[in-house]
Every structure is written in structure tokens, then in C-alpha cells.
Amino acid sequence: MSEQYLTAKARPPYAKAAATANIQDYETTYATSVADPKTYWAKASTEIDWYQPWDKVFDSSDAPFYKWFVGGKTNMVLNAIDRHVAGRRKDQLALIWEGEPCDAAGKPKEVRTFTYGELQREVNKFANVLKLYGLQTGDVVAIYTGRCPEQAIAMLACAKLGIVHNVVYGGLSVDALKSRVEDSQAKLLVTADGCYLANKIVELKHIANESVAQCPSVETVITIRRTGHLNNSPQPAGAKQVWWDVAMAIASDECETVALDAESPFFIIYTSGSTGRPKGVLHTLGGYMVDVQHTLKNVLDIKDGDTLFCTSDAGWVVGHSIVLYGPLMHGITTIMYEGGPAIPNPGRWWDIIERYKVTLFFTAPTGVRGLMRFGDDWPNKYNKRSMRLMACAGEPLNPEAWEWFNKVIGGGDTCIIDNWWQTETARPMISNLPILPLKPGSCNRAMHGIEIDVVDDEGNTVPANAEGNLVIKGPWPGMLRTIYGDPERYVSQYWSKYAKQGWYLTGDAAKFDEDGYLWVIGRTDDVIKVSGYRLGTAEVESALVSHPQVAEAAVIGLPHPVRGNAIHAYVILKMGVENHPGLPEELRAHVGKVMGPIAKPESVTIVSLLPKTRSGKIMRRVLKARALGEPEGDTSTIEG
After folding, report:
1. Residue 589: how many CA atoms within 13 Å on its side-chain side?
2. For a tag on the chain, would you pick the N or C end, based on fewer CB atoms within 10 A?
3. Under CATH, what is the fold of the domain 531-628?
């Protein structure tokens, strides 16, 4: 991180957003929430509807397998659809879907919309299809599609019946899908003939067939007709083959929503694998619902009538909480876009914002940096003034990208919410808020009900500006409950290091500055020790991206005979910038100027692509393995 940002004074909050923010007093409400979290979350639980009230807000008798809202009965569909249809939102738009393909004029060929009433009917019909093929409460359904309305309908239908859904990012490899289906023992797979992504057809059914042929737990495969492009691959032995449209045509649109225990398994989602073997994170119903409903109200400042556009996929937790469940619980309109951000041109996202008058925009830093490569002209073609708030999460948003996002996309007065969270946390844990002063590059403060600290390996709080382990000092309602089928791994990975204190280990390195702002450095295994100095990969990468010719960067540490480790950088240049022999040395010198000589990379390699997970996180361990000529390990989550 550039020193100018680390030492700068906090900027005042955006005046327009702060004046109307849902929360006006962070300090008092935060202090109350951590002083008496049981009372705080008990009050928050009144924001959702219950079939039966809970008896006990929190149960720690089997720590760290914590329970929340014990004895309560509810359902996601009760809160995300049914209560809106029974009230005043039956005819309000719930979901807008836009396909990737465009006509010669650059207009989308396919747009589908669903009111809350229409969405309820579609969900009821597919719930009846699931029942027809023998699915019951507690069973697992795997969903392997592109971003399409049927993906959302399938997720909600599972939720309605208490069936656990396992959404797998459309386009992962045969082995990746197979491992997730096998691990979850899914009985039914929802897939599609294909999907459109970056001007290509991803042959989902081909991949699904090969995977299911090796997964005896799968009894039925339901296929959506999306591209009309079916390959000639053999059908998997044993599994029934059903067309989505054929099954839906005969299904009733009436189906009762099941009252479920608050601690019922809700969904399994596999982590992106940026640091190793993917694992199935299990979330349960009541705690997830209360936490996501309440926290997003503050973090995204959701208001009645909002239209939210989140660029994520449901194969990532952001797709669950921000694309689907969060906005639907709040009764607003959510936009799902199928394809890539630069199809048919780099203005696609900004065109969507203009056409639908988007008020809330949520994306990942890799998306911001990727489009920043194309310069200012494309976003400047579109009217983006409908936006009240822009949010970014997934990895650190380097200050240079923050400044471009702020000036070019937000016009300098649209509130930016940089936030930190994980698959395991279900929702933002550390975030800016519209009322808080902010620093570009910092994700700011802990959210309500969450205590954080930066500590050394013994659990001692480290001084300001010193790096340490980011920990969460206790449980919260939306937390994961276990690693599916592997409770020992759940304990050892998250709770064993600071078992005495009862703290959750995030696996990220971070530091507080003198003003109490948190700066996430990156995964603890993404911290490079050079000549005894600890350097975060995110800091060095940010220094590289601050060079006017660099769009993206990734750095790794490789063994060095004198310094222990040396930094090696991989850089993607901005569009229109040509590589030349002196550029790598110029970039090395630039990092030395920004961060000091100790941070100068040993080498800089200009590349056209970086290995990334489906959520946009750079897989530095893959780069390191390639550089050392070692096995790359699990690469199933590399996108593209």
C-alpha cells in the first residue's frame, strides 16, 4: 500500500449517503452490540418472520459447534417471497435477468423479469418437481448452471422444502463437480445444456454427464434448455434424465412452505480453494437469515424501492447473500446478469446500471481493475447517477483502483463500501458505513455484534501498523456450523490455534493503523518474509498497480539463498500499453520508490492472464508451484 494512503487522514463520509443512512450512530450501537450480543441478536431476530418463536437465543454447550435461535421455526421462502406476496409487494419486480448475447446494436437479446408473485409460482412448481422425484427435507441437491433465473428458482425451491442446496460454479471441471457432488452425496443435479460466458458457450451438460457417471448418489439429472447446444456425450448410467421445461409444465403452482428448525442445514458452499483443497462450508437457516437480513440493512443501506445489481455468481457466497437471499428478504429488486463484463464491449455493466436505474452496485476488486484497463471513455458513455452506493469485496481493493472507482464510476460523490468477509462468515464482518469517515484501501471497522483483533501467534494484540493474525473474538449468528462431513477439520482450521481464548482464526493477515482503521493484507500464507521483513502480497501488488501502465498484478515469494525469500511479480498491462524490454526494470524501480528497496521484486514477468478462482481471487500458490516446477494441487476452481 502506498505510504500516502496509510498515513493519510480519514476522509469525511459522503454527505448525501450519510444524511439518509439507516444507521446514524455507529459507536453507541456497536458498543451495545458487543457488550450484550444475546440481547442485540434477539432484537435483530424480530426483523424476520417465524412460524414458532425461539426458546434460547444462543447455545454454547457444545462449543465451537454453536447454535443460535434454538427452538425457533422459520423458512427462507417465508421471508424472501411469501410475506411479500401476502403483503403489498406481490406485483413488484423481484428479479430481473439479462442474458449475455446482444444484437448488432449492442442490446441484450434476452431479458426476463419476475414479480414476487410470479417468482412464488415458479418456486412452488419446482418444489413440486423435487417432491415428484423423491427429494425430502435434509436431502442434498447440487446446482450446476450458469447465472440464469432457473438457478435462483432451484435454490429457493430447495429452501422451501428444507432440501440442502450445493451450488457449484458453472464451468468448473469434471473433477471439481464430481468432488463436490460426491462429498455432499447429492441425490439430484440441476444443470443446463450450456451457458454463455465471455462470448463462449460453456458445455455444462457435457461436464455434468462425465461427473455424474462417477457419482452413484445422483438419481436424477434435470437439465435446463439455455443455449440449445447439446453435445453427443453419453448419458450417465443409472440417473434419470429430465428436461426442466417438461417437468415444470405438469407441476402444480401451489406448494406449502415447510416450517424448519432454526438450526436446520440450509446450504453447503465450497470455498474457492485459493490456499488449498476446497472444503464444504455448512450454513444453517435461522442464524444465516437473521444475520444477513440485519447486517445488509446497515452495510448496504437497503431501502424500500432499491434496485441492486451484484455481479457475483451463486457459486460464491456473495451470490447467495447479495444476489439472491439478502435483497429478496428486504423486498427489493435484484438483477442477475449471465455473462462477462466486457460483452459486447467494456460498457456492459455501466449500461445495465443506466437502463435499470440501479441504486446499489456490488462487485469485486478484480472486476474494477479489469475494467479500469479500458480507461475512462467506456464508463463515461453511460449515466450512472442513479447509484446511491457502490460496494466491493472479495480481496483487498487497492487504493489506486478505489480512486478510479470513486471518480470515474461514482462521480466522486457515490458512497463506496469496501468490506471484508468470507464464505464462512455469510456476510460482511468489517466494513465502511455511509456515516463513517473512510480511508481508501481500508475496510474500516468491525460490524455490529462482531469483535475483531490483530494478534501474534500467542494471542497478544500487536501494536498499530504491525501485521498479525486477524481474529474474530467469538461466535455470531451467520457463522458456518461445520465443514460438511469433516467436523475435525472445522475445529482444527478455525478454532484450535486460539482455543484457550475461544477466538475464530480467519486465516488473513491484517493491521490496524493509529486511527483504528483495519487494513487486510491477505491470507497469512500470502505474506512474504524478505530478509526478516514481512511484506504482504496485497501491498506489493498495490504498489505495482499504482504504476500508470499496470492493470493487475500478483506477487509470490520464492526461496533466495541470501534473503530467505525474494519477491517475483506477474503483471497484466492496461489496454493499449505495449511491453518493452525496459518495462520490467521500470516496474521494479517503481515498487522500490513506493515501498522501499526491500520490496523491489527480484523479477517482473508481463503476462496476459492470471490464475484466479471463480470469485476473482488470484491463486498465488498455483503461480508459486509453476515457478518451482512443483505439482499445482487442486486447480479445479481456476476459472476459464
Report:
1. 5
2. C
3. GMP Synthetase; Chain A, domain 3 (3.30.300)
